[in-house]
Amino acid sequence: MILSALLTSAGINTVVCLVCFGLYSILRKQPSLVDVYFSQNLAHVRLKRYDPFCLERFVPSPSWIVKAWETSDEEITSIGGLDALVFVRTIVFSLRVFSIAAIMCIFVVLPLNYFGQEVEHTHFRAESLEHFTIDNVKEGSEWLWVHCLTLYIISCSACILLYVEFENITTMRLGYITSSASNPSYFTILVRGIPHSPEESYSDTVAKFFTNYYAPSYLSHQMLYRSGSVQKLVTDSEKMYMILKSSAKEKHCESSLFRCGLCGASSPLMLSTDPELQRARSGYSSELRKKECAAALVFFKTRYAALVASQGLQSPNPMLWATDLAPEPEDMYWANICVPYKLHWIRKIAMHVASVCFVIFFLVPVSVTQGLVHLDKLQKTFPSLRLMQRRYIVQLVTGYLPSVVLVLFSYLVPPIMMFFSTMECYISRSGRKKSACYKIMYFMIWNAFFAQTISGSVIDGWSALGHLGKNLKDIPNLLATALPSTATFFITYVLTSGWVTLSTELMQPFGLLYNFVYRTFLKNKDSSYGTMTFPYHTELPRILLLGLLGFTCSILAPLILPPLIIYFCLAYLVYRNQILNVYSTQYQTGGLYWLLVHNVTIFSLVLMQIIALGVFGLKKSTVASSSTIPLVICTLLFNQYCRQRFHPLFMNNPAQVLVDMDRQDEESGRMKEIHRKVISAYCQFNGGNSFKLGNPVPPNPNEGETRVLQPTSEDDINPAPLPTRPSQHTSLEIEELHQPK
Fold this sequence. Notes:
4-stranded antiparallel beta sheet, 62% helix
């Protein structure tokens, strides 16, 4: 690829970004699109009348950039939760590291690469990008020690910044644990693999077991039911409700319809002594028992007792009485709860095999994209391609089209990986999304990095692939040989996958399409696109992948750093704006995504050092290659220290903290009130089917009616009640946008 092709790609992506950013600043001012761009706090905003002829609504403005920049981390945490702050801190960490790398590589390494060979440079725009890589440095050059020194500076800076961020986020996680003192999940465990007994129901078995072995700390339990019988249970509960309501002797049930038999909350109606009501209740209870599955939620009197019960082995057979801390009520993924526990390991193996097969299948578009990058080499093999000799066509095909093809194919990955994670029987929505995040990250590392690099080398000759299959020890040398030339593709990938994807995220095309269809074809002007949770499983792997490309290519091809820094600057503003205005928080992991950030960063550093070691060896620089080995060892030792120091705090809640919280609640007399809330917190069918039934949103003060969100069945679009404290500056901003001038 020549420099003009790279400039063509940069120009196209810059124009696309500017147009999208300008359109967004106009569309967000339109009253009909408030549902799309302010969906998080729409129900809490009072919209004023607007002037339809106000020209300010059609003039681009940078006000949203200023608001995103001025928002503090405390506001981000209060609105989006700790996971949102971890995501933002990941961007900040990447921006700091690559700013240091850019200073060293652009002003020191890049000139050494460009003038590494005694070649006369003419026609700067027609220069091959390989002249700017380490490939242009001659063998045995004395200046390779500069590359090694830069490698040390980047690695040490990354480790120091990573440690500081890890320490700060750990402190925030401890604060997150102590701040949610009445969280019912701290008192609750999920029990699966309950042994079947023909003499008694699952409920009686659970009560007998925990009364026998956890008598001092056992509080109560709640059975779980097969999700396939939801509609039948709803019908039965409606009949029961009508019978109870017809009785003039009892009061009307004030709690939810399902609270009277499925959630553990008692009601005066269920305690009635009326014979007719007793018979109805007995029949209803027998029907419920038939629908019980071998899983239950067990409530304990203290947080520490629940922690001990969740971590202990309950019986000699590990497949029976399997216990885990229960997720938060909004985080429960009810569809997977009643899957037999003995089938979990089979499902996990099957989904891992399916993931591997999908990765292999994806090698086809990867090979196509690399073929377009190395068009000159394909023309030698396929003479018919020699027809594409016009300069502008070649620049478009080699500089822009390959990354576009790969990005388009990448859109198939998240929904498929989310399906695989669902089939693995995760009990929480956040766990399912976190698992999909890991799968997508592994997929991208293999297909967008290793497969791209290796396939670029294979294009030079199919014998390389055969040699690789015979001797796997040559993989580092193969990467060291192929990566400098493949790095030119990664530069265009950053421009396309990074810049344009941010524009798409800001524009919300699916929300615009949904809004257009409802208002134009269905004539429904009071519809809402719904509130969405933040798509960590798609956005975090993309940021980490671009970080991996930045680390591995920094000293090999420094031209990747300027577009990468621009990407992280834009990402900082765009994602903060989306967290403030678009995405709501129904559940979170409490900062667990940082473990993925740490692991991928360490992997990227070690991979960068190993590739540099191979490159220095190919360049016959003994001093540089031997000096890199201690750096690899020190990085691995640093990783091991962090795993011992910080990782356990993310895996389990500290017992000392939980005991202190229990003592404070006992001394203050709040424990009895917490117990009442814990027992009635989990509602299986109401929570599990909220996306079908629809939860009412607080009414608009000017409309005098309750609006019900109508989202799709996708798990990430949940019409749960919106946060009670919306962002103040966003509310004021919407009022200003619709105030007549």
